[in-house]
Every structure is written in C-alpha cells, then in structure tokens.
Amino acid sequence: MKSGTITEHYAKKSDGKGGIFYLAAGPEDGPLVIFLHGWPELSVSWRHQLPVLGALGFRAIAPDMPGYGRSNVYDTHEAYSIENCVNEMLFLIDSLGAEKAVWVGHDWGSPTAWSMASHHPERCHAVASLCVPFRTADLGFGGFADTVDREVYPKDKFPAGQWEYQVYYEESFAKAKAAFEVNTVNTIKALFRRGDPNGVGQPAETAFTRINKGWFGDPDAGAPDLPLDEAVLSVEELHQYASALHRNGFFGPDSYYMNHERNAEYGTRMVNGGYIDMPSLFILADYDFYCECNKSQLADQMRKYCRNLTTVSVESSHWAAQEKPVEINAALVHWLATQAMIWPEMAPPKWGPIKS
What we know:
Elements: E1 7-12, E2 19-25, E3 32-36, H1 50-56, E4 59-63, H2 82-95, E5 101-106, H3 109-119, E6 124-130, H4 142-145, H5 164-171, H6 173-181, H7 184-191, H8 235-248, H9 251-255, H10 260-267, E7 280-285, H11 300-305, E8 309-314, H12 320-323, H13 325-338
Parallel strand pairs: 3-4, 3-5, 5-6, 6-7, 7-8
Antiparallel strand pairs: 1-2, 2-4
Helix pairs in contact: 2-3, 5-6, 7-8
C-alpha cells in the first residue's frame, strides 16, 4: 500500500555506539530515495518531499545527518568530513537492506550525495542536488576558490568572495559556534528566510562575516530577534530546529566547515576519473546568493564532469525545498520519471461498471 504518512525510525549500530535516526514514507519495497539535509537543518527539512514521494510508491528516507537531531553526535572535527558522512550513509543503506538508492542532497548534504555517486556508483541509481554543484565542496575549499564573481566581490574587500564565512570558521571557530548558541530560536529565524530578487548582483551577507567579526556583527550578542518568515518555516518547525540545536549545540554542524583539507584529499580518490555517468539533477535557486550559479563559474566543473545532467532553476532562496516545495517536488518527480527512469511498479487499475 502506498502511503504518504511519515514515520520515525532508528538504525542502531551493532557495536552499540549509537546510530542514525531517520524519517520514512512510502512502502518498504518501493524504489529507495534518500534525502540528505545540510547546515543547520534536520531530517524534517524534507517534510514536503517525503509524503509526496511516499504516496507515489517510492520509499523516501531522510536521516538526521551526523551531529544533528537524534543521530550520532561526535566531538572531533574530522568526524564530520565528507568521507565519514559517506561511511555513515553506507551504514544506513546497508541497514535498510538495499543495494542502491537515488541520493538527493542539499547544502552540506549535497557533497555527501555527490560523493556517493563519485566514489560508490554501485550504490546509486541516480543523484540529485539542490543549490550545491558537483566538484565544489566535495573538493575542499579549492572547489570554491576560483569561482568567485569578482565584479560582485572585489578581491581587495572580499578575498574569499561569498565564502568569507568559511574562512571565519577556520579563524574563529569558537566565536562562530558561540554566537549561534546564544539563542537558537533567533538563530533559526535569522537564517531561514525567503529569497529576495533585490539581492541579485549584490554581495551575499556571508561575504561580510570577517569584516563584521561574526555572522551577526556582535558575536557576543548572537542573532537578532527577527520576525519568523512563515514562507519557509511554521512556528512548530522553528521550534523543532531550535530545540534540536539547543540540545546538541553547533559543534557538529559547524565542524562540517573544518574539513577542507580532508575533503580535498578524499576528492582525489573519485572513481571513473571523477566523471559521473548516471542520471544527475541539479536544482539551481535563483535567489541563493551563497551558491550563485547564474553568473559565476561555480557550476562549470559540474557541467563538464556530469555526463547525464539535467538542470532546473527555481525562484527561491537557499532553502528551496522548504520555500518552494511544489516546484521542487515537480522537478524531482519529472526527472525521476523521464531521465532517471525510476518509477514504482504500478498495479493495474480495477475497472468496473460506472455507477450513476
């Protein structure tokens, strides 16, 4: 029976050292689609996608990534490298008894999804990403460095362009972490906001992080108390995020930014010369000014190395799956049916007399 109902599950590790929490929808024997969230999110970031794919007959899964929610939380930076995240996802798919999945990532979930395809293609039917192209974060900071649009980010003012915030983590990790933890409700409200067309061609807020000595100007004060943007989150969803981040803290989420050298080394071990031949989908958000792909060169390497690539754009912020769920679901479903050629087996219709 097809079902769009979301249920909770926990894949426990045999060594007794925790495991991975995940949400699921759809029949257990349906084609497997695994959604990987980014910073600073949770499995519920995919709340709009899971029930839709589940109702269509897919088995849609969304884990809390390492360091988040009810999954394992580690106390070292290296535990959050892309290679370790890939290993966690290999454990997850093994625990599900599946050989392959369609992997869908967003933000820091994207390099893990891309790396499943570039390091373990035998475990993939297809791969999709929202906002973050292939051969960017999965290659360490070097994947970003030469793609900055210098018309928007003059080098003398913004040496690392919109990626200044990533340099700030490396220079001032403790301060960055502490600022987010001052008030996690305010942090989430400040971060999760809809796209603004007026930002096109303007420097992203993240470019000012080092200039301002923090994400929010005064690192000791934390995030400002902004109104909740209900185009992205409801009050209930706000508190789901905030309570989980308050409980676990930001060490794990922020540590994803502390592995550029490890990630770059892992990137040298891609198979197939780094090319991805399986069906690939990239969903570009027009008002995502962190991962700007319309004018910059950020997506150029992806276009070269993904040999079976479909690209779709949506008028959205970085939080596209939550801000524009109808458009994202339509893009995913259309691609699954027409490009990835993966679809649940459909029972034949039961014909009978038409009742007047």
